[in-house]
Amino acid sequence: MTVTTATLVNGKPGNVIPVSDRGLLYGDGVFETIAIRDGRPQHWPRHMQRLQAGCARLGIQPFASALLAAEAESIINTTGRGVIKLIVTRGSGGRGYRVPESAGCTRIMQLHPWPEYPAACSQEGVRTRLCKIRLGRNPALAGIKHLNRLEQVLARQEWNDADIREGLLLDTDGNLVEGTMSNVFIVSGGVLMTPDLSQCGVAGIMRTLVLELAEQQGLDTRVAPVSREALVLADEVFLTNTLIGIWPVIALGDTSWRTGGITLQLQELLSNSSDYDSGWRE
Amino acid sequence: MTVTTATLVNGKPGNVIPVSDRGLLYGDGVFETIAIRDGRPQHWPRHMQRLQAGCARLGIQPFASALLAAEAESIINTTGRGVIKLIVTRGSGGRGYRVPESAGCTRIMQLHPWPEYPAACSQEGVRTRLCKIRLGRNPALAGIKHLNRLEQVLARQEWNDADIREGLLLDTDGNLVEGTMSNVFIVSGGVLMTPDLSQCGVAGIMRTLVLELAEQQGLDTRVAPVSREALVLADEVFLTNTLIGIWPVIALGDTSWRTGGITLQLQELLSNSSDYDSGWRE
């Protein structure tokens, strides 16, 4: 079944925003990319929680999650798979960077077709590269999914080889942070590790869920700085995001891995997780 | 004479952009704020040069300056003062961060009224504060005037006191970088210094011009890291941008200064400079 792209701007059908919107002028906003399965948004409460946290960090007026849920329901024109991209900006107004007291917010909700990644990505793993561009470190913006994404755009411009599915990013101090569109985990000596994101990076929904599932299974997990050396020496490496789930990494440049036992175990746990549907209306 | 706000999007009257514009989605673009005096854009060649340099850095398709000049001429509906805000984004297209091969660019040109700053700002100087938020360091984005401006938005949210005209920003290493909307200079022992912007900050048109004028006068100038201590101990401090020219800084929190001789000399040089009009069509 084909999903037709459909867009709501502040709840109304439309596909434009004013040129005065601060999302355009300054990247003054946050976004979520939400998987739809069986016509239902997945991990809805987690997306709402992160969106609210992002708005709170930027000082953007909070919004009613119920309103967004109603809009999501009205826009989903499939009983199958799709993707909702939801953007919340600080709206229009203010000359210069200063936020006017009257500032509200702009909601842009857009339904897209599901990206058909080859099954081999999950089953056989993906090849990656180490990006040249580094991520700047700034705790004020770290963790949230804001609209200032030039670093990711520049990183993604570094390669065109369709065989390379993701680029991994170090920060300016040389620590591993994430992929351009995913979070990254390594397994070393039986310990599951993912980079600390207190200085940069986006704290993905799937990253949190994978950590939770691993802990429920009694796996030893650690959120800490991960050096480039630790990455290369790892026993297993994998990527996560809400659309791909878990992709084993089988290569980073000349370094190669086989899909490891903990990666397979987590893929299995994830596919059996009841988290996907939870919190969405009946 | 009152200036009416007028907007061209890709050369046509309009005030909206598609929600798929990468300027909104990722802050994937650059901008210029251009002063109009006597109905003529000021420092036009310098703005065009910086805009092209920003596009080149981001890999955005180059554009014809002559086209932008024609559009500027058509939009200027005043023989007096005004401001043009010019945004160039990578346009629409591409799923995710990846730039499609067909990517063009979107031009948004908007005429605004001149901001009427009190004459006292130039003549008596301004009070400033030191912002709590720090600027992240990333050479890949430093110097250009790109659309990822959340740091400036957050900095400008730190105060509401109308008596404080500007907030000064340190980077995450503790070095002075700039103001939220201006560049900063200090004078120490007769040497004119402004922070090196190789790691963060926007290289302002007026910053470059002031450095050139100072060098033509045989002043000792230095572009180098400036510590917070050097700022506080400076003999003179001033701010620059294309709309304000030079504003002496008379206070930073509890530290105060008198407007110094070199600041006054540079204000005088600037007001007599022939650079303003140069390069604009007859």
Brief write-up:
The first copy, chain A, has 282 residues and is α+β, with helices and mostly antiparallel strands.
Any chance you could write out the topology, listing elements then pairs?
2 copies of one chain form a homodimer.
Chain A: E1 6-9, E2 12-13, E3 16-18, H1 22-26, E4 29-37, E5 40-41, H2 44-58, H3 65-75, E6 82-89, E7 106-112, H4 119-123, E8 126-130, H5 150-156, E9 164-170, E10 175-179, E11 183-188, E12 191-195, H6 205-216, E13 220-224, E14 226-227, H7 228-233, E15 236-241, E16 245-252, E17 255-256, H8 261-271
Parallel strand pairs in A: 8-9, 8-16, 12-13
Antiparallel strand pairs in A: 1-2, 1-7, 4-5, 4-6, 6-7, 9-10, 10-14, 11-12, 11-15, 15-16, 16-17
Q: What key phrases describe this protein's structure?
A:
globular; alpha+beta; D-amino Acid Aminotransferase, Chain A, domain 1; 8 helices; 17 strands; ten-stranded mixed β-sheet; homodimer; 2 domains; D-amino Acid Aminotransferase, Chain A, domain 2
